[in-house]
From TrEMBL:
UniProt record similarity statement: Belongs to the aspartate/ornithine carbamoyltransferase superfamily. SOTCase family.
Entry-linked HAMAP family: SOTCase
Protein name as annotated: N-succinylornithine carbamoyltransferase
Entry's transmembrane regions: none
Annotated positions binding N(2)-succinyl-L-ornithine: E142, H177, K237, R277
Residues reported in the UniProt entry to bind carbamoyl phosphate: S47, L48, R49, T50, W75, R110, H147, P148, L149, Q150, C273, L274, R301
EC number: 2.1.3.11
Segments forming domain Aspartate/ornithine carbamoyltransferase Asp/Orn-binding: 185-311
Length: 316
């Protein structure tokens, strides 16, 4: 595996999930593999889980790790090609990415969408320019349209917790929020679930349809209660409209997951990538109940990242 930016970079999804589960049993089994290798983690947006879990995963493999909040600590980046830099930008992505490629063996990048221009965001311009100019393998720490480390951890968790002897029903449900959030997490979750051995349903209000290439193979159900029937896993996440790009179309009244809503499920486990707005996206009652597996889900981020980094190191 050279770059890790989406499920399409994974030759065998089931094997990668199993490798993460094996690593979870013995996290230090490959602690020499990364000796003398450096992982750079570059953030253009905030992070708790991705930063800490990926750093821990690299350290478990014996790597050195350098972390930088480039948006706050670096120079103002110019992304456009061929412009005269006589404005507020100080360093071109061409030099910045190439220099980071000199210092690191693998480079992680977080670059959220601006949610203003659909074509610009969905072109993944920043991610693709890091791939082009860094000259070393790139690991997505969440890009404009996907979050593959989160999605792998989510599938690891579902595999670990699935009811014995049945194909689990997984429901991705939209949840209310007060801000416009990216489609990256649901896009990525949908892509991975459509490649997994699960019955996958997406439920959201009209107008929140995700881009079709991510949901091909999923059942789309606008009636949340119908979607939730007999679910084994309920994945709760807000996202802004793709059609009316970057917009919050409604207050989502009645869409927050509650214990009442869970009654129609098959005693479903509730998941969320975090951070979660308690009382807005997901009720306190659920988050504080045995139905919630959000903390174990976050714990699995380490083993997902470690399985990916192991395969990337083996390809260096
Ligand atoms: C892991 C989630 C990161 C981000 N969340 C927020 C709150 O911006 C999102 O929704 O994509
Ligand atoms: N779920 C996740 O990626 O969390 P952070 O944004 O805190 O890294």
């Amino acid at each position: 595996m050279k770059n890790y930016t989406s499920v399409h970079d994974v030759a065998d999804v089931a094997a990668l999930v199993n490798e993460a589960l094996e690593i979870k049993k013995a996290p230090f089994a490959h602690k020499e593999l990364g000796a003398g290798k450096t992982l750079g983690l570059i953030f253009l947006n905030p992070s708790l889980r991705t930063r800490l879990s990926t750093q821990k995963a690299a350290l478990n493999l014996g790597m050195n790790v350098m972390v930088m909040n480039l948006d706050k600590e670096g120079w103002a980046l110019e992304i456009q090609e061929g412009v005269v830099m006589d404005g507020t930008t100080v360093e071109h992505i061409k030099e910045a990415a190439a220099v980071m490629g000199q210092y690191c063996d693998i480079l992680g990048l977080r670059s959220f969408p601006k949610l203003q221009d659909k074509e610009e965001d969905y072109s993944e311009d920043i991610l693709n320019k890091f791939i082009k100019y860094a000259g070393i393998p790139i690991l997505s720490l969440e890009s404009a349209t996907r979050h593959p480390l989160q999605s792998l951890a989510d599938l690891v968790t579902i595999t670990e917790k699935a009811p014995a002897g049945k194909r689990p029903k997984v429901v991705l449900t939209w949840a209310p929020h007060v801000k416009a959030l990216p489609q990256a997490v649901p896009n990525s979750f949908a892509e991975w679930m459509c490649k997994a051995d699960v019955d996958f349903v997406i439920t959201h209000p009209e107008g929140y349809e995700l881009e079709g290439s991510f949901t091909d193979g999923a059942t789309i159900e606008y009636d949340q209660d119908k979607a939730l029937a007999e679910a084994d896993f309920v994945y709760v996440k807000n996202w802004s409209s793709f059609q009316d790009y970057g917009k919050v179309l409604s207050d989502g009244k009645g869409w927050m997951m509650t214990p009442e809503k869970l009654k129609v499920t098959n005693d479903a486990k509730v998941m969320h990538c975090l951070p979660v707005r308690r009382g807005l996206e997901l009720s306190n009652e659920i988050l504080d109940s045995p139905s919630s597996i959000v903390i174990e889900e976050a714990g699995n981020r380490v083993y997902a990242a470690q399985a990916v980094l192991k395969q990337m190191l083996e390809s260096l």
